[in-house]
Amino acid sequence: MKNCPYCEQDIVWNVKLKTPNALTFKMCFECDSVWNMDQTVSDTTGSNFEDLMVGKGLRLDWENVEKLQPSD
Ligand SMILES: [Zn+2]
Q1: How far apart are CA 24 and CA 7, in angstroms?
Q2: Has residue 65 been placed in a domain?
Q3: d(C-alpha 49, C-alpha 53), whole Å
Q4: Is residue 7 part of a domain?
Q5: pLDDT per residue rounded down to tens, the chain (72 residues)
Q6: What is the layout of strands, in order, in the sheet containing 13-17?
Q7: 1 found inside a domain
Q8: Model pTM above 0.90
Q9: Is residue 53 part of a domain?
Q10: Cα–ligand 1 centroid distance for 68 (angstroms)
């Protein structure tokens, strides 16, 4: 498991969107930081959940995120 490098309040999870396309990424649910699956989790990488969803034209909906397992 890996603690979020930004807030250090929670672990980083591998997650997927339930709809529309089962997109997978890594996310901290405490501060909404996100990383691509192929990105190294650090405080110099990543984006945030709002930018990710808006950038994809998707509704900002935390209910649409399913936790898979803690990220390594
Ligand atoms: Zn965080």
Answers
A1: 21
A2: yes
A3: 6
A4: no
A5: 899 999 999 999 999 999 988 999 999 999 999 999 999 999 999 999 999 999 999 999 999 999 999 998
A6: 47-48, 33-35, 24-27, 13-17, 65-70
A7: no
A8: yes
A9: yes
A10: 17
